[in-house]
Specification:
Chains A, B: It comes from Photobacterium ganghwense. Two copies of one chain form a homodimer. With 277 residues, the first copy, chain A, is of the alpha/beta class. Helices cover 42% and strands 16% of the residues of chain A. In chain A, α3 links the parallel β3 and β4.
Chain lengths: 277, 277
């Protein structure tokens, strides 16, 4: 049996979106064998809100008798001080790096409202990103093969191999204009690269997937259909992969990869720069 | 004039996607007055790849005579050691928190391949997320008002106030099923809550925007159109905001907010839980 002390309340607290605190806290906690109950408290920008955070920390401590873990990022010292009065273990996610960096750079930091996901830092790149999302939506799933000259990347593959989520992630996270185009059952008789894509093959990449995994995914959507049958899935994948090889289109098997991993691997393969958003 | 030492090469290095290293490094560097040239090197999973990273660090140092800054997260000690031979300042983004956490928890960490954006940890929640993206795409921009019982949140607003990017971000980042529905010029004569949405008003939120900002955004798309005119924008916003108030739909002005900020504020307003993806 697990000792009860392996349970911890975890709070992610920030004067911004708390997305960075959450991401990092999650990664760090993944290294410990503990059970957690997690609460995210963004936009803690006033003393009142900080007091409410402190009360939540106190309540968790009173309920469990165990000090909660607080991953936080707050710039204004007065607000920070209120939270730090709570009965918890505190991890300042930025300061733990700012302090050594300050020594190495021999520069003083200029703390400012920690808005790592804000619009104001770089309005132009922000508009680029919105435009990339729009472009990608307009070129999802073969809707359009116009304006391919403006694409940063073109993805090909069978239905349900991960093209749409990957394209949207590339646009949303990295400001990349992604086109995706599906091959369907009717294409299989004489599978060729679509004419419109040929001039852009240098920025074209394939996605593929293990047949078993494809069957599972398609069954969830259309159980017992021809479309989801093992034979159909195997045939489509065979033909499409053969085409990728024949046409020298680099391709990636998505079976065990998350959307983030597929996206960053594609950036890596293509040499495309991440545009930080 | 800025002294030349304010320039730094920055490397983000990881055995995973490097998304966490990038996000955190970016936030930390934002606090210092330096100019940077940034390189991201994901999937450093072999000694060979680590040696190539080390050579890149060496090359940067030789070119500039200034030690680069390396934000990194690598689990396997042998791979880590190769990179740390480079002439750089190193910031281990996870260890800087794992070390104090270990003391506070009095538990040993169990280092594992740092896959904070991977599919394997929790396949069910990953499938939920893909389903959320699909649902959200199928309910973008008023395409469908079916199956609203399955929505986590319903967003209303005029054209170009941020509904689509916000909906997609909610789905992608938090696994939330978002519906969005636009009000168009023709709706303005007698603006009411769509009948299909009425039963779900408890999960309905409005987005609004300053008229000047809306004009700018619409002009970029359809310059000199009626649609982008100041009069049209003001009128639409007046009517839609009046409707939000009349119907007691909580709403949010998106003018100075990023997609991340709009999304997290909506979660905050609605009490919806973030599903970590």
């Amino acid at each position: 049996m697990q000792p009860k002390t392996n349970f911890r309340d975890v709070f992610y607290v920030s004067d911004g979106t708390a997305i960075t605190s959450e991401t990092l806290g999650h990664a760090v906690l993944g290294q410990f064998d503990i059970e957690t109950r997690q609460t995210t408290l963004p936009f803690v920008e006033t003393i009142e809100r900080a007091e409410s955070v402190r009360r939540k920390i106190e309540a968790a401590y009173e309920e469990t008798g165990i000090r909660p873990l607080v991953f936080y990022s707050i710039v204004i010292p007065e607000i920070k001080a209120v939270i730090e009065q709570g009965p918890a273990h505190f991890y300042d996610i930025l300061n733990s790096l700012v302090v050594p960096l300050k020594d190495d750079l021999q520069l003083e930091p200029r703390p400012m409202l920690q808005r790592s996901h804000s619009i104001n830092k770089d309005a132009a790149s922000y508009q680029d990103r919105i435009a990339a999302i729009e472009y990608t939506l307009a070129h999802d799933d073969g809707i359009s093969l116009n304006n391919l000259d403006q694409a940063d990347i073109i993805l090909l593959g069978v239905s349900r191999c991960g093209k749409t989520p990957t394209s949207l992630y590339l646009a949303m996270q990295f400001g990349i204009r992604a086109v995706n185009y599906p091959f369907i059952a009717e294409d299989m008789k004489s599978l060729v690269l679509p004419k419109a894509i040929e001039p852009y093959r240098y920025k074209t990449y394939g996605l593929t997937i293990d047949p078993e995994r494809l069957v599972t995914i398609r069954q969830e959507r259309y159980a017992n259909s021809q479309y989801a049958s093992a034979m159909q899935c195997e045939q489509e994948l065979d033909k499409v992969e053969a085409m990728f090889r024949r046409e020298a289109i680099p391709y990636l098997n998505t079976s065990s990869l998350s959307v983030e991993e597929i996206s960053t691997r594609l950036l890596d393969m293509s040499g495309l720069k991440r545009k930080m958003c």
